[in-house]
Amino acid sequence: MSANIASVVDRYEKGIETFAEALKGVPAELLDKSPAPGKWSIRQIAVHLADSETVGVARFRTIAAQPGSVLKAYDQEAWAAKLAYTQQSPEQALQLFSLLRKSTAAMLRALPESAWKNSARHEESGEVVLDKFVEHYCDHVDNHSRQIRDIRKKFGA
């Protein structure tokens, strides 16, 4: 595995710590506070990260094992509204996210170097290449963890 790919997988796995740190010690009364109308609460962000990871790990496997496949898009707002994000446990979301990331990081480390240039066609984004797609998921957890920290700061926690 090249040093660049190893660095990407290390960053991907470090996302577990990034997400856990953002959630650590969040008071229960803050979990459901929205920072602005139409914006997600900490609880909703946490559940979204777990759901997004569930989709992402399947996409990574598809790109690695079946290059050229079509990756289905999903409506994150519909998922949040219709899958009871406001009633789910952020702790369970973190546990699921962590297990998915750990097992997927191990799978990614075991892939041959050539698989990292495999691609698939995303219904909305067009062609996606495995190495860049994993980086996208690294950025995703970083961005949402930052949102959680910002909400905490806004409400003084």
User: Uncertain segments of ≥5 residues (pLDDT<50)?
Assistant: none
What percent strand? 5-15%
Report, as a whole number of angstroms, the end-to-end distance.
Answer: 41 Å
* Text of the CATH class: Mainly Alpha
How many individual domains?
1
Globular, elongated, flat, extended or rod-shaped: what is the shape?
Answer: globular
Topology-level CATH name? Four Helix Bundle (Hemerythrin (Met), subunit A)
CATH architecture name: Up-down Bundle
What is the fourth-level CATH superfamily? dinb family like domain
The value of Rg in angstroms is 16 Å
Question: Considering DSSP H and I runs of 4 or more, what fraction of the residues is helical?
Answer: 55-70%
